[in-house]
Every structure is written in C-alpha cells, then in structure tokens.
Design goal:
The structure holds 2 protein chains of 2 kinds.
Chain A: E1 7-14, E2 18-25, H1 32-39, E3 46-52, E4 58-62, H2 71-83, E5 90-94, H3 104-114, H4 118-121, H5 131-135, H6 145-173, E6 180-183, E7 186-189, E8 194-197, H7 198-205, H8 234-238, E9 254-260, E10 268-272, H9 274-277, E11 282-288, E12 291-296, H10 299-306, E13 310-313, H11 323-336, E14 340-345, H12 348-354, E15 357-365, E16 377-383, E17 386-390, H13 396-407, E18 414-417, H14 434-443, E19 450-453, H15 456-461, E20 469-477, E21 483-491, E22 508-514, H16 529-548, H17 552-559, H18 564-577, E23 587-596, E24 599-609, E25 615-625, H19 632-651, E26 657-658, E27 661-662, E28 680-685, H20 703-715
Parallel strand pairs in A: 4-5, 9-19, 17-18, 21-22, 25-28
Antiparallel strand pairs in A: 1-2, 2-3, 3-4, 6-7, 7-8, 9-12, 10-13, 11-12, 14-22, 15-20, 16-17, 16-19, 20-21, 23-24, 24-25, 26-27
Helix pairs in contact in A: 2-6, 3-6, 6-7, 13-14, 16-20
Chain B: E1 2-6, E2 9-13, H1 21-28, E3 47-50, E4 53-56, E5 69-71, H2 76-81, H3 92-99, H4 109-122, H5 128-134, H6 144-156
Parallel strand pairs in B: 1-5
Antiparallel strand pairs in B: 1-2, 3-4, 3-5
The chains are: A alpha+beta, B alpha+beta.
Bound molecules: FE2/S2 (inorganic) cluster (2 copies).
One FE2/S2 (inorganic) cluster binds near residues 39, 45 and 46 of chain B.
Amino acid sequence: MQMNRRRFILTGAVVGGGVLIGYSATRPTRHRRANEELVEGSERFITSFIKIDPNNEITVYVPHSEMGQGIHTSLSMMAADELDAAWENVIVEQAPAIDLFANGDLVKGFAGEFGVPNFLMGLVNASAFTVAELMNLQTTGGSSSVRYTGEYAMRTAGAAAREMLINAAAARLDVPTSELSTELSHVQHNSSGRTLSYGELAADAALLEPPEDPVLKDRSQFTIMGKAISRNDIPAKVDGTAIYGLDAHSEDMLYAAIRLAPVFGTKLVSVDATQALTQRGVVRVIELEDSVAVVADNYWRAKQALALVNATFTETENDNVSSADIAARFDKELAESNGSEDKEVGDTDRALEEAVDVIEANYRVPYLAHAAMEPMNCTVHIQGDRAEMWTSTQDALGMRGRVASVAGLAEENVIFHQTYCGGGYGRRLPFNWNMIDHATLIAMEFDVPVKTIFSREDDMQQDYYRPAVHNNFKAAFDDNSNVIAWHSRFTGPIQVPGASHIPYAIENQSIRVVDGDTHVPIAAWRSVDHSQQTFFTESFMDEIAHRAGVNPYQLRMDLLQEHPRHRKVLEVAAAAAGYGQNLPEGHALGIAVQESFGSFVAEVAEVSMGEDNQPVVHKVTCAIDCGWAVNPDTVEAQIESGIIFGLTAAMYGEITIENGAVTQGNFPDYEMVRMATSPEIEVHIVESGEALGGLGEPATPPIAAAVTNAIYILTGQRVRELPIKNHDFALSNPVAQV
Amino acid sequence: MATFKVNGVEHTLDIEPDMPLLWAIRDELGMTGTKFGCGIANCGACTVHVNGNAIRSCVTPVSAVEGQDITTIEGLAVAAAGTTSSALDLTAVQQAWIDHQIPQCGYCQSGMIMAVSSFLASNPNPTDAEIDASITNVCRCGSYPRVRKAIRALASA
Ligand code: FES
Ligand code: FES
C-alpha cells in the first residue's frame, strides 16, 4: 500500500526534563475536504507518544484496546526497536481515551485499502457518517492495529526520537552525527568510547526540531521486532489482578439487571413491578423505551427481582417471524431479484448457456452471536455535569462520546476508565450501542455508580449478529472439464467489499448481491463477510474440482498462477500437513485458502468420522503470509484463536429466530469447541517481507471449508449449510481423493 | 448470616443463604478475580476451590460452603504455599501459564487456572482423555492447544 503523505512529528518537554514525542499523520488522498478542515488542529491526529524520562525509562502509550491480541506488546516493540531502546526499560501504558489519541491513522489505513473503513461503515447509513467522525474514534478492529498504528505511527515516532537523541548527543559531545550510534537506550561515540543515556539527552532533545521524515530500519536491523517476546499483559491475567469492565467496583455501587424487548425493535408498553419492589436490596425499577431494569445493591438480587417483573411489549409485524420465514424470504429474493453488481468479468450468462456442463449449488449459513466470555456490561457514574465510565470496549473514545451524548454531557466531561477487554470479536465496536445506552440511561437516575450487566442469556439474545447469508452458485465447464464461468448470487449486505470475490483465473465471473435485510440487527463478527464467503467460495471450488476430476489442491494451484502469495501458503500448508501422502485409516484432508485483511492464509484440516457419525477434527495445519511477524508467538496465538473461533462456528454455531426473537440462551444451546474437541494446530509463518497483514481475523475464514471439504471425502456428503452438527452422516459413502 | 473463609480470611456476611458464592465474592466482598461467564455451571469462568476442590461458584449457594475454606485466584499462590503471608509468588500452574503465553483476553483464565490446579493436584499425570473429560471450561479465545501443552509440561515436570 502506498502511503503518500507528509508526517508531522510533535515534541515537547515533560516535567522533570524528559521528552515526549508524538506522531501525527497528515491528510489522506481521499476525503480531502473533511480532512483539510480538521488538519488545522493537528494535535488531534497524534496517534502515539513515546516518553523518555531523565532516569532513562521509556514509556510507550498505546492507543488500542488489549483484547488478548497482544497489541500493547507488539506496538511498543515497534516503537522501541526503531528507538534502539533497551526492552527491559520500556513500559507500556494504555493511552487515555482523549482526542489526542483518536486513530485518524487507522482510518487512513482503511481509506488506503478500501476507500472507506468498511468494517465500521457497512452497517450505518454512510451519508450520516463522515470520515471526520471516524477520526474521533479510538477503534481496535479490522485487524488493523499493528498494520496502521504500528507501521505508520509507532515506528515513525521511535525513529524520530532516535534521530533527535543523536542530534542532541552530537551537540553535547561536539562531534558529527555520523560518528554516533545507538544501542540499548544509549548514544555512543565509538572512537572516544563516550556514551550518553537517552535519559541524559532527553531534555536537550525536547528542544530540537523533529526530523521531517525519519528513516525506518530495514528488517535486517531489527533487534526487538521479529522476536517471540512475552506479552506484558499476561502476568496480571494469571493472578487475578487484571481488571475488566465487569470488575469496576466501589462500596456504594448499585447493580442493574435488565430485560430488553425480546423481539428487536419493539417498545415497552406496561410493567408490573409490585412484587419485585418488595425484594431485599431492590432500590428502584426503571422503565426505558425498550426495556425494564431492576436496580439493587447486588447483581444477583437485581436479577432475581427482575424475574418477578411482568412486562409487556408492543406487538409488531415481526412477532411471528422465524428462521424458516427468513430463509424463505432470502430464497425468494435470490430467485426473483437481479440484485446489484458486486463483480462482473466476461459474459457469464453466455458461458453458462453454451457450456457443456453446468453445476449449481445452494449454500447457507445462520446468524451467529459473538458470545465474548465477558458478558456485555457498562458502569456509569453521573456526577452533575460530569461522568465517569467503565466498560470493556474496542473503542474507548467512541464509548465516551456515546455516554456523553446519551447523558447530554460535554465529551471532555466524561472520564473513560480503560480496562482489559474480555473478548471483542466485533461486538464491542461502536454502533452496537445497546448496553452503553441502557447503562447510561439507568445511571442517570442515580448519583452513585451503577453497573449494568447482561446475563449470558441477554448477551446472546441482544447481540448484533453475524448476518445469515444464502448463496446460489453456478459453474460452467467446457468440453475439457475446464471451469469457464463462475456465477454467484448472495444475500447482503456487503460489510467488507471483495470478500465474495475469488482469486481464481476463471474467464467469466458474475457476482451479485441481493437484499438480505431483516429485523435482526447485525454487526461485524470476527473476519466479517470473509467468514461466510470463504465457506461458500472455497466449498464450491472444491465441488468444481471434484466435478472436473481434478485434485482440489492442484486445481487451486493451477488457477492461481497470478497469485504467488496464495500459492505459497497453499504449498507450505499442504506439504506440512502431508497432503497427498498416506494418512491414518479413515482420515481425510480438506484444504482452503483466503486472503483477508492483508494476510494470506491456507488451512488443511485432518478429519475423521467419530462413532457418533459426527466429524472429529484432529489437526489443522495453517500457513500464513502476513508480510512478516512483529511478534511470532503472538502471530501463532492469534492463528490458533482464529481457527478455533471459526471451528466453533462451523461445527456448532447457529442463532435461530422463533416468534421474532432469538431462541438460544446460553452455552449449552450455543456450543463451543472445548478441550475435548479442540484440534492440534500447527502454524507456519511464511515471511514474504511484504506489507504487514492483519492477524486477529484472517485465520477464521478458511477453517469451515477446510473441514467440510474433508467431510466430503469421508462421507460423500457436501455440507452446504452450517453448522455441521445439524447434518446426519450416518449414510456415508466415501469419495476417492483424486 | 453466612460465614466462610476466603483466602484464609474469615467473613461473616448478612446475606441470603441462596445467594450464589460468585456474587457474594464479587459484589459483597469486592474481589473481582473470579469471573461471571454463564451463571449456569457451564463455562467454568467462576471456578474457585472449596477445601482444595474446584467448584463452579455461580451455582453454589453460600449455604453450601458454610464454615468452609474458599480459595480464589487471588489466593491460589498463598494457599499453595500453605501460608497466609503476603509473599505472593506464583504456583507452578500460574508460571506455566506465563511460560506458554496462554491467556489471550484472559477473562476465562482465572477459572481455567483454578480448574487445572485442582485437577492436577488429584491427577498429576493425566492422559489426554482425562484432560478432555475434566477440563470443560470455555475459552472463547481458543487457548486450548496451549492449555494442553502446559498441562503436559506440568505433568512431566
Ligand atoms: S459462570 Fe459459573 S460456570 Fe459459567
Ligand atoms: S483467554 Fe479469552 S476467553 Fe479464554
């Protein structure tokens, strides 16, 4: 990606004589007007700070949420390496949720890749939503932190600081800068053997003009990046001291349990709380537009009393809607609507007409909940015209702004307390406001902190879901069994453009999207559209290979001549998994590949059928080309996590709708992969040296098709509908692997 | 009234006998290391030890632990050292969690560590099948492969 822009580096002195160095990006090429207006107050574009104290302690402020992706560690590694800092003396701090740390750079990264930050914009009315607003978010999502904040802010700030420290040392020692080098937080004058610590130079450096365009290291010069470094957030996560949003606590705190309208979009009509109000510890019953809440001095008491509240909600046209109705509507839409163009190449209709052979298949996936381990919660303490808040989030500034607007307060009067985040996966992004809004409205009735908590059932039934999608495919073959046309029609919306596209060299391609809107609220879900689309496209590619009588791996390789990075990860994963070699009796391999968020991932699943006629996934071998690895152990952990997240969805995940509302309530009906069902995972990092790719999401998309492609070989049954658990594999008819 | 010890300290609370231990620990005592995940004994996030045995505190009424010794994640190291001093070193299990870089979001890990600690105390050399049958906690971040490696390393140590 070309990032053709000026960089602003800002510096200042800190109390006690240190230096503070920040990086600020300039305007992107698009959306010029919005940014020209904003760029004047350039401080709001600062995305990173490095602070060097006189005692040579270096603090890196990280403007992203730590959700388990190891971002605090990776980003500070990037700054520290460019700075030539001694890693032991680097402290990482969460940047506060103030405008100074808004991620304009994240937005620009997306602007470069997609035109607009689609992982956020797909769900909102784009016209009501400007880039200027996005600048004020502090988002962690879209597998973006290392790619954008890291590459464009952290490294630049580190390199700038280093140059300024060298300049300060040159003046102090009265030698040319060319005679100076840096190592382990010191500047050295090699010929005289004199050294000065960064801390000794920081006050002087703070007075210098920052360099216009600091030179970043070549990969061969890295001393910290590229090493498997222990994450700094882990010690607190093994001794119980890590604080999450749910852990906000004070002596005078009150707790709210809430019942939202079960059918999305309906309103509260009446409440009978007579009995609830007599219960021990109950302070108040609060009626909101779409919900009723019980506030008590303990969450359990609030929850118990809520069960005694009778509430009625408005009737709506959706009260009788079921998953079957939604499916029928999707199918009708696919049959009757031509939809709108997603991608057109060649003349697919004609190719289908003239083809010697045509295959057709219908795929579908259900709605999915995020089900982060930490149920949604938010604590708000209104204090006159000020407020404090605590919530686990992927966007601190966005949450602060939302609480301010709901409570009618000035944004700067709301203090956001950053905590660790017990899983996000897209649920804790802006615009999924239901918990934040409710917690704020409830807290406005009190002058003490009120913690509103979703029970697991609330969390599952009041989510913003991964969209259910239906996809109709056709493929055409010529008389040599070459695939010559790819026809895809799917229900939208498109949240991430390009997810439905294929890298394969097929002459005629027609990909169109039809309306898939329902009353069920939707949002980004780990890897967004890639999670559904990769299951569809990589399964149908397998169907094409089997129909053509070509080995599925080989067909992919043949059709990917123009895509060396896809080929390479396929090759590495296949070789490592023993693809094409003898397997244990009753085992089969399935393969799938996908590019998403700038990374290329191939996965090979080794599967057998268990005694209950359900598949057992023994091992997943994964190859990822994410450019290069900032912290290889973190890369591996994210791959393992992404695969298991995708495997849970493939095997068990389904949110169904009955009478307009979500049927599932807790983990038994929304089952998870656990120890007993978790495969062995082997990760191979392919270092192409290309631009950094994302890590949090790209491992999720390929796993479903990798598993179902193996199931096809084992059983002869093509799984075209997820989850896998709903299929009966009793009548198996194994297929010979070509 | 409910009386029980948490990490060696005795507490007498004026609470309902059917209040789950989880909410007594979190909301009444203000100790937040023990997590709420499902409330129905399914996910294991709320796992604590009662006299050394792992239980799921979200469905355990305080009346069931009257007079008992509760250990939470905050007190695990001290309990293992057999002292109530404040020398808070880590247990071998906790150290293995750092060595294998297991936690991601970390939210499930208090419960995971409590479950594995009591499991290994009673079965120091488990087979894979025993691990699968006993460690049923949910980790939405999918730390299972690393948990398994850590358990194996602890078993062979
Ligand atoms: S919260 Fe107790 S088992 Fe899930
Ligand atoms: S580490 Fe996130 S749920 Fe286990």
